Amino acid sequence: MKVFLTFFLLATCGLATAWSRGSGCLCTSDQSCWPSTSEFSQLQSQVSQPLVYPLPTAAACYPTRDASGNCTDVIQNAYDGNWRSSMPGSMEAPNFETFMFNNGTIDGCYINTTITGACGQGSVPVIGVDARSVADIQAAINFAVKYNLKLVVKNTGHDYLGRSAARGSFVVWTHNMKNISYSPSFVPQGGSANDTYDAVTLGAGVQWHEAYDAVNQYGRMMVGGASVGGSVGAAGGWLAGGGHSALAPTYGLGVDNAIEISVVLSTGEYLTVNNYQHPDLFWALRGGGGSTYGIVTSVTYRTYPSLPVQLYVFQANITNSSTMPEMVAELMYAQTQFTDDGWGGYGAMTNQSMYFFYIAPNMTNETATATTQAWTDYALSLEPWGVTSTTTIYSLPSWYEFYVALFSDGIQNGGNVMITSRLLSRDTVAKKSMEVAQVLIDYSASFNMIAGGKVNQIDPDSAGLNPAWRNAVVEVVAGISWQDGASSTEIEGMIDQLKEGIQTMHDLTPNDGAYFNEASLFEINWKETFFGCHYSTLKGIKNKYDPFKLFVVAEGVGSDDWNKELTCRL
Prior knowledge:
Layout: H1 2-10, H2 37-44, H3 71-77, H4 81-85, E1 99-100, E2 106-107, E3 127-130, H5 134-146, E4 151-154, E5 170-173, E6 180-186, E7 197-203, H6 208-216, E8 220-221, H7 237-240, H8 248-251, H9 254-257, E9 258-264, E10 270-273, H10 279-285, E11 295-302, E12 304-305, E13 309-318, H11 324-340, E14 344-349, E15 353-361, H12 365-381, E16 387-396, H13 399-407, E17 416-425, H14 426-431, H15 433-442, E18 446-449, H16 454-457, E19 472-482, H17 488-508, H18 526-531, H19 535-545
Parallel strand pairs: 3-5, 4-5
Antiparallel strand pairs: 1-2, 6-7, 7-11, 8-12, 9-10, 9-11, 13-15, 13-16, 14-15, 14-18, 17-19, 18-19
């Protein structure tokens, strides 16, 4: 425990460490350094499953005259996150399957086969390992280090920065590592027998719908993500980026609920890290970014007793556009009170409507009414100014029933999209809510009430997470989207619009950060925006545990030492 305490006394915002830079380039499949067929055969003999040769999602629809697979299946399931995650080459946002050359040409593989008539590999990795065990991952890493390969790690492919793909790369696919183990008296390795938790250990490939189903069988619930179908990975990038949840205002973020993490390093070493063993790496893995320090094989999380929840649903239509900024501003201002009272949830807006639903565990109906009455009354008071609103409070027997009712079905994935986010602080919503409101309306933003409350009560230096989270009360998100076949000029034009929004929000909220997992490749001062004053400490930890500099992702810790393509060190 002494080592643990000493480390965290050092892991402060004032700590800066200098590290030497390496040199050289990574090998991609278009180069002569790429391993031969016989060399890949040697790798095949060391792993438990056949090597995978990932293809773009729509590859089954080509060649157009004699499709190689079931194109009907592709068309029917293109927006199903669980279906997409079941394939090593499919990304949840298909734009990250494509590759744009410097001349504007796009190499892609579209479901609409008339766009190009051919299926390009784009940024989809060309070969990799279907990892089912620690030994599989060790073999893959040793091979990648031996041949200096451009490596990517893919679990489900939920990634708004394209970190699960890279042109000409070698992939470690962790999706099929599905082990789940529940223990009502879990003791972390190296800990005392009195340090016990009611916990669940999830393999790297477990998705949230699987995790929720598992702990519910034991009358438990846990802090986790919410997406349609529950296809997001529960032990991958979600945690590495921080891990937000509608339950976070009551129980904290994912990083606050992780007890132990197992990981394979670029040296091939397999470590189990926690507050007692390798506490610096445990610190970094909780919020310091995914695919940066090693490949996580499992995570152990706290669980909580399954409790009833209150669900507060609000909907409004606005016919007087001049009323909208005031209403949005008031809602942003109210986030502090909502989260401090234990409410968390999700919402969205246009210039003529607003909708959100918030939940609170273990709250009575009377308390739910009392803590939402101020907002309900305010919204009703706007009726003379063109606002028609409805509110409903539901009492549900468990969080699991809430999750199944709202997230088990629907469409959420499969579209070309780029997004940006901002973590609005208590100070921002108190002093700049009107200015922020207008930007949110202009960009038809969504908002996630997944901070504040318990999140703000935890020591900013307790995890590698961006300290901005500890002052935030709401995350706001905006984005752009386009249809398959859009030209590079059209896409770049939309990106320019996104950049304008990023600049505007940054200027309004210079001290607020962004959520690494829900952001863009164009954030201003990304090291500060994503990691805050923890960046230098995180980089030191990365260099310590990744001596071969194998793990590099867009805007991840240490990527500032690489070229734009992340293939050659500077």
